[in-house]
Task: structure prediction
Amino acid sequence: MQKLKALFTNKYFILFLWFGLSLFAVIKGVLVGDGTTHNYNNYIIYKHTLINLLHQHSLFGPQPEYYFDLNHYGPIFAMIIAPFAWLPDKIGVILWVFFNAWVLYKAVMMLPLKQTQCLIILLINANSMMGSSGNVQVNPLITALVIFSFVFIRNKQEFWAAFAIVLGTAIKLYGVVGLAFFFFSDNKLKLIWSMVFWSVILFVLPMLFSSPSYIINTYREWYPDLQAKNAANEISDRGYRCVMGMISKIFNIKHLANMLVLAPALALFGLSYLKLKYRHYIQYQLLMLASVLIFTVIYSTGSEPPTYIIAFIGVGIWFVNVTKPISVFDWFLFIFALLITSFSNSDVIPRYIRVNYILPYALIALPCLLIWLKIIYEMLTRDFEKESLIRVNMVNTIQG
Result:
């Protein structure tokens, strides 16, 4: 048992799982595929955001001769994918996946936690990261940008926090949730002006490779595209893995108005700010970060299983910050999330349960919803000042 514990707390073993499983997933798709780009279709979509931008073609129209599905990312994403898009596809897609794994690894390791806690978060998410990598997703990068916005605000680096928020929003609207940490900033005016600065820079930058009129028109097309995607998600078997999807599927509600669910959720989330007097306490801040990451996914109609890397990083942050000793209920929530959310697409869950219950009823969202509600409860009831004093006294006692 001691050897097993030592293995699962070993930094190099955890990093081997984090990067190794991700690379295995994408290399398998590249080498063992059917000889086409089907197994890394998402990467081909990403690559064509650059090609279409350079040729000033619509970013959001279908191109069945190159890929299936549609692009839904903003024009700045063409600049992000450019270093990879110039490479041969099979090399580019592998390096893209490695970049996503690396940038999320760096973000997690920058969190104001002990190294062992950061490694636990990576270990908890190794399987989710592999699933995201196998689907060649951009979500690890988005998760990293949200974390960067949190870390930079804590470090009084508002200029770079603004960059992370604006870039994440310009790629995929999820990035806007970085604004949730606005009140953690000691220089809010600098943060605001920095966001204005980066908004202008990132708006103009793609124009240097296309034209002002093309970029302006692309942004005009983006909102209708996202509206159409939202409508398609509600009838999709693949998407809609969110709380709204779970409710509509369990109770067979054909046209559930999203705001009937989202409005109460936003109100609950807003209650967290009633405890802003604790905004300088790290435990409160980390719970806010976990809440934001989970909320972003479970209340998004565009959520798919690979999207849950965002939420599950939040689960990991919550888990390493629960009050000690860990209660039976917290252990239940964590194991429930690990099984139903992280491993729902694996053989860990019997196929009968997966096919007949988890997938049809979007139950992948349920454990994260319960954990998110628990986080809101903790933020409203925990005395973070008292906890901080206890930790300081314990450290002083040990050092004395």
Q: What stands out?
A: DSSP finds 18 helices and no strands in the chain. The mean pLDDT is 92. Residues 88 and 94 are 10 Å apart (CA to CA).
